[in-house]
Write a structure and sequence with these properties.
The strands form two sheets. Strands 3-2-1-4-6-5 form a six-stranded mixed sheet, with helices on both faces. α5 packs across α14, α9 packs across α10 and α10 packs across α12. By secondary structure, the protein is α/β, with parallel strands linked by helices. It folds into two domains: 139 residues, ATPase, nucleotide binding domain (Nucleotidyltransferase, domain 5); 199 residues, 2-Layer Sandwich (Nucleotidyltransferase, domain 5), CATH 3.30.420.40. 46% of the residues are buried.
């Protein structure tokens, strides 16, 4: 596909983002799929959170692929259904335009077996596919590409820990531009607390709730996905900026929510540094990572033992993409704007045959 624009559809857990990306990777936000000029669009690229055991590489969407994405919906109930709705809307608005699925799990396909394997029975692992996939891979791939450019350093040998902190949150270990670990696992529910998702919880607690409090699987799934995280701790939507305002006004639950979040993310950074064999660069990206200077400060304070030191002025005034570490910091601290649309558009262009949108 040599010319024409790619419409990137990102159906996340907290909303729908649309961008038109041209051949030079200029990006323009779009409000509605139906408002796009079909003569401008050469392809539609969809971010698909969970490809299940089959899909890692980008793939042209047909009826069989749609069915397989649907079958993976129980693994990512907040994401795959909205993605399929986006596919259907794009089919209706742009019926002649090819659509491509780009999977969040793809970048994490390089996670080694020791990090991807749960210590569960053989049948669960080998027959039922219960293992750690890793998520936010499209975002992490961009940070892994962008960080070496910002630092004027080759990716070879560079050890990154990437904190994708938004509605969904994860922390990843990257070395030599390749993923080595991610806090999310079999589903996007594992790991650090998120806006409305719990992150990791002792499975014994869930068994207790089922056995002693008679909560069924549906009730547990809803509570863990929609009533937990920052929302469960502080109330409200789980929006970090709102939680910070409530904390500043003296709300003790909000203050606790912030401290729980910072504690868990910092612990995850330390764990991911172990997976990467050390840490040279700490990256903050996505809504909270880019937009909350206090969150970055609280997390980095807890990581001083790793040589992380923020410059308070730089951090407070940060506008992505930038370095907010102090001059004495042993670890560079970058704030990078999430540009998943560029990675997805590039994948669509590589997958599809050369197409020209110029008039004959």
């Amino acid at each position: 596909m040599s010319s024409g624009e790619v419409l990137v559809v990102n159906a996340g857990s907290t909303g729908l983002k649309l961008h038109l990306v041209d051949a030079e990777e200029g990006s323009e936000p779009v409000e509605r799929i139906e408002s796009v000029d079909r003569d401008r669009v050469a392809a539609v690229a969809h971010r698909v959170v969970h490809g299940g055991p089959r899909f890692r590489d980008p793939v042209l969407i047909d009826a069989a692929v749609r069915e397989q994405i649907f079958e993976s919906e129980p693994l990512a109930p907040l994401h795959n259904q909205p993605c399929l709705a986006g596919v259907e809307r794009a089919r209706e608005a742009l019926p002649e335009v090819p659509q491509v699925a780009v999977f969040d799990t793809g970048f994490h396909a390089t996670i080694p077996a020791e990090a991807a394997t749960y210590a569960v029975p053989w049948r669960w692992r080998e027959e039922w596919g219960v293992h750690r996939y890793g998520f936010h891979g499209i975002s992490v791939a961009w940070s892994a590409e962008r960080a070496p450019r910002l630092l004027d350093h080759p990716s070879t040998g560079l050890r990154l820990v990437v904190c994708h902190l938004g509605g969904g949150c994860s922390v990843s270990a990257v070395r030599d531009g390749r993923s080595l670990d991610n806090t999310m696992g079999f589903s996007p529910l594992e790991g650090v607390p998120m806006a409305t998702r719990s992150g990791s919880v002792d499975p014994g607690a869930l068994l207790y709730l089922m056995r002693e409090r008679e909560l069924d699987a549906e009730a547990l799934e809803h509570a863990l996905n929609f009533d937990s995280g920052l929302s469960g701790l502080a109330g409200g939507s789980g929006d970090m900026l709102a939680v910070e305002r409530a904390s500043a006004d003296g709300d003790r639950d909000a203050a606790l929510a912030i401290e729980v979040f910072a504690h868990r993310v910092a612990a995850a950074v330390a764990a991911m540094a172990a997976s990467a064999g050390g840490i040279d660069v700490l990256v903050f990206t996505a809504g909270i990572g880019e937009g909350s200077a206090p969150t970055r400060e609280r997390i980095c304070e807890r990581l001083a033992f790793l040589g992380v030191e923020l410059d308070p002025g730089r951090n407070a005034a940060a506008e992505p993409d930038c370095d907010v570490a102090s001059g004495n910091s042993a670890v560079r601290v970058l704030v990078i704007r999430a540009r998943e649309e560029l990675v997805a558009a590039r994948a669509a262009r590589h997958l599809l045959p050369a197409r020209s949108q110029t008039s004959p």
